[in-house]
Amino acid sequence: MRKVLLSFVLLGFLGFSAGQTPAxxxxxxxxxxxxxxxxYLWADQVSDAQLVQGAIRGMVQxxxxxxxxxxxxxxxxxxxxxxxxEYTGVGMEITIRNGWVTVVTPLPGTPAEAAGIRPGDVIxxxxxxxxxxxxxxxxxxxxxxxxxxxxxxxxxxPDGTVETLTIVRARIKVEAVxxxxxxxxxxxxxxxxxxxxESPALMGRALFSFPLDxxxxxxxxxxxxxxxxLSAAVEVASFFIDRGPIVRTRGPSFGERLYNSRGNxxxxxxxxxxxxxxxxxxxEIVAGAIQDHGVGVLVGRKTFGKGLIQEIVLQFPDGGVxxxxxxxxxxxxxxxxxxxxxxxxxxxxxxxEEEDLDLKAALEWISSxxxxxxxx
Length: 376
Description:
Helix content is 30%, strand content 28%. The protein is α+β, with helices and mostly antiparallel strands. The strands form 4 sheets. Strands 3, 4, 5, 6, 7 and 8 form a 6-stranded antiparallel β-sheet that branches. Strands 10-11-12-15-16-19 form a 6-stranded mixed β-sheet, with helices on both faces. Strands 1, 13, 14, 17 and 18 form a 5-stranded antiparallel β-sheet that branches.
């Protein structure tokens, strides 16, 4: 029902706002179709499906929103595989900023990270072709490819240096959650690399695997986490927030929504959240909620600043889909995140080549806290 209503509202808005019927508004498209069929030299080599898909794609691209997308059937299938954490490529999350393909974050343990790709890198060229004006889908399809094949990227790093990197594509399998008990410090360390359907359960399993009778605190590592499912972010944040809002969302089709904690079942221990330039979207939801509720501190560097929500609003008979930006989210206190990011409570300017300075600062902060309840 939601999908039908969205398409109806869209056509109604376009028609009545311009004082025309939808048929009149879209008449030029019919005229272009007829002109191609009657006059184009190679018209017999172009299918109706190609023309329709091109029209849809062009309309969505005119929104100038890198997150709104038309997926042809094969593109949608590939996108679904990437959501499941497995695909072939170099292993990085990208977006469009100021008309250029920009790296949100390289994923840990991937060819992109090994090659030296960094958060904030601007991809100037792919295999010698300029990316200026490319859509997100164009960039994704050109960078991805068969396992074992190379792709050459010319990148401009945040410090202004330009480098050309040849990276061999691989099968990317993202492990959503990793954990470790730091016995000497008596601290549980959990790293979340993406928010998918399994992340909350894996998070709970990791937390309750630690020896609660001696645990002094928890480090939640959200560095280079590009986000994922909103529902998963709310569930993960609920492990640390007893009650109250996790995130506020607003959009023209659904108004305002408030997502509350689902109840905290984990002891309230000192919590340090590691963030950096690659912390985005769902990861910022979790970090922002923890910061607003005062149940932990953010350690590291300012986050990426992606505070928008995307939904599949139409599914076409051929298997293609339309994904649109339908709203934005705010932290529990109403702070805007998009294009702003979150500022850490404990800033760590240097990354450190041989030592994880973010983790060191987090452990120092936890040791300075008086343990509450368990872990004294």
